[in-house]
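This section describes the prediction task in plain terms. A model, or a person checking by hand, is given the sequence of a single protein chain and must write out its three-dimensional structure as a string of tokens. No templates, partner chains or ligands are provided. The sample shown here is typical of the held-out split.
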Amino acid sequence: MYHYLYKITCLTNQRYYIGMHSTERLDDNYLGSGLVIRKSIKKHGAAQHVKEILIYCSSREELKYKEQDIVNETLLKDPLCMNLKIGGEGGGQKGLKRSTATKINMSRARREMIANGWKMPKKSIDKMKSKLKGRKHTLETKRKMSNMRRGKTMKPFSDEHKNKLSIARKKRIISDVTKARISASLTNNPKNKGWQLDAESRQKQIEATRRALSKKPKMIVSCPHCGKVGGKPAMIRFHFDNCKIKGA
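The expected answer:
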């Protein structure tokens, strides 16, 4: 495990941030967790920030003492310093001063969430969606996300959860307009072209299906709830007791 004190300098405005970090890999691309340094990286880009290692320590405790000596009250008064508090305690928002208007907005938002059963207001959800809309992850970000999820498995759903999902799907009725949009989307998607059969293969598939049906006549049944007519195996699976109209 490596324990070191680092300094990150923004090349755009020469502002700097000093922090401590413990890691098993020196090349983990860590650029600090402070509130101001994160905003600086978001505004100017990671490429405009240079990181240098100031000192290595043998333990986390020693690292905290070293940061306390460097990131002191005198350093915090420097207008170019992006640290918000005295060193030795790690990142966080302690020492951050918010305006009166911000405090009022936070208080109002909290009251609205409490009145709404701790659910986020629709305007806040829409605001988050608008920020994420059109956002594309870089290949490097996708690789990091993949490595983070690798080896992790999702906990199995409980029987109660499975039952709720089943009921929700049965009650869902897809309109003809939605079906047409789904069909058009799949047809025009270039990624699906590889799954489309050529004319000869398609004809062979049709002939094979006809031969199979000729040996065993298809039993046609009608759903008593929606009146749809079709083959018995598929109808039993999606209609009769499982019909969406029945559960509606």
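For orientation: The beta strands are 2-10, 16-23, 49-57, 220-222, 229-231.
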